Amino acid sequence: MLPGLIDAHTHAVIGGLAALSPNLQDEELDIASVRQRVQAWRDETRSDADRPLVVFGVNPATWKNPQALAEVFDVGSWMSQPLLLMGSDLHTAWVNRAMRAKAGIDAAYARGLTASQRHTVGVATDGEPNGVLVDAGVDLVTLQLPKPDEDLLLEAGKFAVRANNRYGITAWMDPAANAGPGEALFARAPGSTGTGILPAYRALAEAGGLSAHVAALLVASPLSDAADLERLNAVREQFQGTPNLTMPGIKIFADGVLEYPAQSAALLGEYSNSGKRGEMLLTRKGLQALVDAADARGWLVHIHALGDRAVRESLDAFEAVREHRDSGVRHSITHLQLVDANDYPRFARLGVIAVMQLHWAEMDNYLLDLVKPYLSETEFMGQYPARSLQRQGAVIAGASDWPISTANPWEAMHHAMTRHGPGGGLNPAERLDKTSMLLAYTRHAAQAIGLADKIGSLEPGKQADFIVVDRDVLEVDAESLKQTQVLETYFAGVKVYAAQ
């Protein structure tokens, strides 16, 4: 028996929507295979020509050759059928000409982008957009998607709860609960009052089906200020009091992703192919002001930062706040693909939790094909420095970022302990031990989602969230741990999952 596991960063309802939609499951496929599967989904759905076809889980390596995609999806009947191929990273996408026309993405739009925005829309040599979109560029097309109806949202929510309970997960942070199809994510306009997938959580709770604690965060625009937080608070107030749903704060995107062709994560150095450093999505002053305004409210701040420059500026913002206020709120930074060694001790000193998706700490096509050619060897091998952060006193919380990677915490623990994948090993010196990973998915994750006083350990006064597994996880090796099966999951003392 173990405490219920906690995922400190997962897009659970979006994961449910993706699972119920056409989905390529992040497979590495050639263009012909992509065409065959997408055409089959189009034939199967027979949607009207103006309704976009959305395919989730597309491996971002697919848009290394956007012209090849255009030769398939910008001809014949596809000339009038909008198509969105959503990257499995949820930060990149490719759209055909019909979808670009629907979103107003043409040569004139591309010419009007500022220097800091140009990376968001891929452009061919003739000045025409080539269909590749990054971060805020993806928002241009998601805003054109019809919002899912309440029945579909509820079904996605039910799927998410079942999937998580099956893995022994009884709590999670949803870090972008006010986003979803039909709404922006990365460039959310100040004052936006979108409710995203929050209605799904409320409907689940009202139906007695939310057998998990959900700490839902609202995404704050890079242009947000103290006044915008008041508008976000109006969204929070609509859902306050929903059983098992808390709304402890906000998420901020500091940068994007390292993978080519996006390369939108902010580096202290530069990408070797372009000499560029990636983009911070907020100014230093703007980031510090936003963090300060949220902290003054007692809100948790959770910052997306993959590049080492984004991590440093995020820590700078937390340090600026701590110099004049100790709110006691445990803020966090998530992803942490690159962290400069000089910043390792700052996490413990500032009380900032490192929320890490260590399932990614393996050699796969993302790292070997889309990252390795563009970083120095030292930077490449230093990715996801979990053990280095831990040695310097950082609290490591476990997370999946589902559906970007599997929600299975047992696989993530295995990868954190072995750091080995199909392409070899990634710096074994950064491996974490089993106890560290079990703490990462229980006590430490409870701290990260603001519920450490209620869950995360089995002791008097806390809620009876616990699981029964098929092996003694304290005794088995990493390979056996990966195969752990949950036999029963209990939420508030009630059995909510039992293996067949």
From TrEMBL:
SUPFAM superfamilies according to UniProt: Composite domain of metallo-dependent hydrolases (SSF51338), Metallo-dependent hydrolases (SSF51556)
GO MF entry, a single one: hydrolase activity, acting on carbon-nitrogen (but not peptide) bonds
Pfam families membership: Amidohydro_3
Domain of life: Bacteria
Domain Amidohydrolase: 1-497
Gene3D superfamilies per UniProt: 3.10.310.70, Metal-dependent hydrolases, Urease, subunit C, domain 1
UniProt cross-references to InterPro entries, sorted A to Z: Amidohydro_3 (IPR013108), Metal-dep_hydrolase_composite (IPR011059), Metal_Hydrolase (IPR032466), YtcJ-like (IPR033932)
Protein name: Amidohydrolase 3 domain-containing protein
Organism: Paracandidimonas soli
